[in-house]
Fold these 2 entries.
Entry 1:
Amino acid sequence: MNKIIFPNNTLFRIVRAVHKTHTVLFKIKANVTGTVLLTQNFFMMNDLRSYTISELKTILASYGEKPYRASQIFSWLHEKRVSGFEEMTDISKDLRQKLSGDYCIVHLKIAEVQSSKKDGTKKFLYELHDGNLIESVFMKYREWNSACISSQAGCDMGCRFCASGIDGCVRSLTAAEMLDEIYTMEEYTGEKINSVVVMGSGEPLLLLDELLRFIEIITADGGKHLSQRSITVSTCGIVPKIRELAEKKLQINLAISLHAATDEKRQQIMPIAKKYSIAELMDACVCYFEQTGRRLTFEYALIDGFNDTGEDAAELADLLKGKMSHVNLIPVNPVKERDFRRPDGEKARRFKVRLENFGINVTIRRELGSDIDGACGQLRRKRKKQGSEYA
Ligand code: SF4
């Protein structure tokens, strides 16, 4: 254990001064005199896969290298997906040594994989370099494969129907870690992933800069080269961040976790609803549509006896009337720690028909992986409760 002493409020400067390419990855507990205890893992070199091509050009220019080296290295990282700098055979030994002295390439470890016998869905429990656990899901559709990835280890948003939010957020993921959720899945399954949903644990708009970097890298030529339209980002409704994202004018899909059509009901299941009203959220959604031309999806977890009545359907239709939107109904996944139940299939279908009668585009999400720990965050919680070596 190391220890440094610093004047109050100067922590960040000191951390940056230690090494400009290192990142603080742990929450820091400082006492009033400004003493910080550094654990062994306190500093971690930045993963070179978290950098966009233009950022790589800047890094390489600082070593006196030509810009074309950036595309070469980007391709080694994101197309050939090397596990170490020594595998970059057309890069000089000198440059490889410089890079490995300043940056790292760290891979996720697979802690567990659950496979559905029914439909080929695979749930991955990954261990991050610091021992934290995250979940990702590989979903197989007839004509394409999709990955649902996490953006944070845990989540601070506290939605009552979600297992990921029960213990709060430990930390946000880096772009490299989000990418590696997909790369590791492709390597394990031997299958290509054609679409990505950032809908696992975490609120991705809280790490907007890192999310934008992830999107830029995964869509770049010379890497995985996914189209922006194949990416969906889900948010519980951080209004200012939706507006910020809208200004980027990307062609990604935005999914809003709505789950209730009135502030009163939404506040009962989503703490974020106490901060931003539905009216503010809808204004931000209109802004997103105006800036990007992309239709929004509204996620609606059907909870038996709470938000699945005829009146709920009418209120939801009223809210979305005239808006370019699609409603995705998701019979809620039972979470052991909560007492929410899903409505039976007939009730869910009735709710859908009611919305359709009001002219709303709506689908009931096809249930995948029902024979494995399907609900987001359940596998991770199970491992933690078992006192796993990974938790
Ligand atoms: S639903 Fe999403 S935002 Fe809400 S607690 Fe779960 S992971 Fe967080």
Note: The chain has three domains: 2-45, 47-104, 109-385.
Entry 2:
Amino acid sequence: MARDGHKSGINTRLAHMGNDPGDFFGFVNPPVVHASTVLFPDAATMASRKQKYTYGTRGTPTTDALAKAMDELEGSAGTIVVPSGLAAVCVPLLAFLSAGDHALIVDSVYHPTRRFADTMLKRLGVEVEYYDPLVGAEIARLIKPNTKVVFTESPGSNTFEMQDIPAIAKAAREGGAVVMMDNTWATPLFFRPLDHGVDISIHAATKYPAGHSDILLGTVSANEACFEKLYDTFLTLGTCAGPDDVYQVLRGLRTMGVRLARHQESALQIARWLEAQEGVAQVLHPALESHPGHAIWKRDFSGASGIFSFVLDGGGEREAHAFLDALDIFGLGYSWGGFESLAVHVFLGDRTVARDAYAGPVIRLQIGLEDVEDLKRDIEKGLRAALPG
Ligand SMILES: Cc1ncc(COP(=O)(O)O)c(C=O)c1O
């Protein structure tokens, strides 16, 4: 907010949010504080623990700068910064679930979230149930007296189903459950979960916030009602992130708006073009009018990032591998949100509810910052290689 009360645009805010250069002798960026020990001036201050910083695991000026920026972006009361996106999924689940509780998790969830739920959470005595991403307000029927968490991710990992987050959040809250959302795909620039009834917004900051395929980091942003418990669990587990990585993500945020605009535009151009290509049965991108969840995307989201999938028109693993092996610019790799394009043949064998019958193998594309015409040419080579015969 400028001094005259005017609310600046998102890129202006991204350029300045988080730290105040005045706190650090005018240097534009905050220091990268490497810290375990923090000294106290006297025994009384030490005993009271009232000093702003008390120990490295509990926060530093570097982590505070990123947490403050995320709070501004998400509209949250507090943010914890953890060593990976997966940690950002696991810490809030551990904070709000106990033995005997029931957790509802969307079936099109990021696979390692499912592995954590099916192993650790079950071992700790939590009842885990997966729900259809298209369930909407009908989720009320699945909520039981012991349902403590509803875990959403929209669009879904790999298959990009859009969930009706406001309807799910309303029903979940009425049932007394905490609503969590993995918001990595949209980033807070294109969707702000807390404005739609979600309590806790999760990010693999590894992706667009970091933006350069060289950092692992997670953030978890909570509303007033949930932050204390989340922060307490974070301290209990000691899952603090390293200062260099935190700094790099804050650095990445400065350019995230301009990068995302480019990712969005290039991905949409390629998605639209793909719809008309021979050998393509379907394109799974929520910003396309043909996507079954397009109306929800249009109602709730203000943009789309650069990752989506398409379905080959028939074939199996051989055709999927032929497509991937013919690519030169696209790398074969799992993460996304970086500057470079990537492709992967997605695994859907873990799904128990969202078992859509696709016409062929599902290929996920992360569209990077390269020139669109070069990327199209690369994809054309892949499609030719995957054609039967
Ligand atoms: C939707 C989603 N959430 C969380 C993660 C985990 O992030 P990280 O790789 O930082 O553990 C990923 C990684 O691919 C992801 O796609």
Note: The chain has two domains: 10-252, 256-386.
